[in-house]
Amino acid sequence: MYIGVQALRPLDIRKFSAKHARKHKDLGFQAIEARFLNPENITFDDLKKLKEILDSHDLKTGQINGAYNDLVLDSEELRKIGIKTFGLLCQFGRFLETDTVYVRPGSLSPDGSWFAHEKNRNVEIENRLIQSLKEVCRQAESFGVNLALEGHMLSPLYSPKQIKRVIESVGSSVLGFNMDPVNFIGTLEEAFDPTSVVNELFDELGPYIVGAHFKDYKIDNKLVFHVEETVLGSGLMDQVTYLKRFNEICSDKFLLIEHLDDIEVPDAKKYLDKIALELNIKWENSEGA
Cβ(250)–Cβ(214) under 8 Å? Predict the structure, then answer.
């Protein structure tokens, strides 16, 4: 299994340097997440430079992420532009030999792709997402890359059974699922019993899982139920069960630590190293991990 991180790199991936690569290696990472905030502005020389730095430091591109119009937008014109932009990410993925290209379902919320909207769970929106994913998958198939689709309880992909239905409706061999159980903590019962959430996701979606994001959460002391992300290892998520089950079916795949500041990454990595050691899991190509 390979371990990477969504940090230790500049927001503009074109500024990724040998210094950033060494930070990854010094902490025992084998992979980066390459995020493209403006895919239309990326040139072949930008990709070539990034690939040379990664290759010279024996680092892999665990996942490509990028900005594009949401796949469920009401505007057909904007949705089509988003699908076209996503095609650029597939091209980048082929050149960088990435393991997966990340797919977010988006939202109808004007406030952002991961925010709630009253229509996000409508059948019409699910069907629109399926159609968009079919078009996205055709591009991925043409470039020979695999996709990692993520869900969230606030998004149009909101439960393990429903996500399975969507993936099977799309019917493409390149479309897989990106595990992130924190995204599916929706009730107080689930918050205090995350193991059940982890197991349900693996039980329903195991054959489709192709990658994983690792993060953590806590319950805020507010007068309504409120879940907030927190530093990996300091919260309630059952990381032991999560890592164990991911390794059972994805021992050759990539996991990425996400949503941390650079200064928080070393402790998070040590925390996962400790769990991996207890589970007799070894990171690929990692010395001393």
Answer: no
In a domain, 122, yes or no: yes
User: Does a structural domain hold residue 216?
Assistant: yes
* CATH number, residue 134: 3.20.20.150
Give me the sign of the Cα torsion angle 175, 181, 183, 185.
positive
Task: Flag whether 283 is in a domain.
Answer: no
pLDDT given at position 45? 98
- Residue ranges in the chain assigned as alpha helix (H): 18-26, 44-56, 76-96, 123-143, 160-170, 188-192, 194-205, 239-250, 265-278
Give residue-wise pLDDT tens across range 163-197: 999 999 999 999 999 999 999 999 999 999 999 99
**Tell me: the pLDDT tens digits for 246-269?**
999 999 999 999 999 999 999 999
Within 8 A by CB and 6+ apart from 190, the residues are 184, 196, 197
Q: Show the domain range for 115.
A: 2-278
Determine, yes or no, domain membership for 289: no
Asked if residue 212 lies in contact with residue 246, where contact means CB atoms within 8 angstroms, the answer is yes
Look at the chain and report how many structural domains it folds into: 1
The pTM (predicted TM-score) of the whole model is 0.95
Question: For residues 149 and 184, is the Cβ–Cβ distance under 8 A?
Answer: no
pLDDT in tens, 209-260: 999 999 999 999 998 999 999 999 999 999 999 999 999 999 999 999 999 9
51, 53, 58, 64 alpha-carbon torsion, rounded to 10°: -40
Angle subtended by helix axes 194-205 and 239-250, to nearest 10: 10
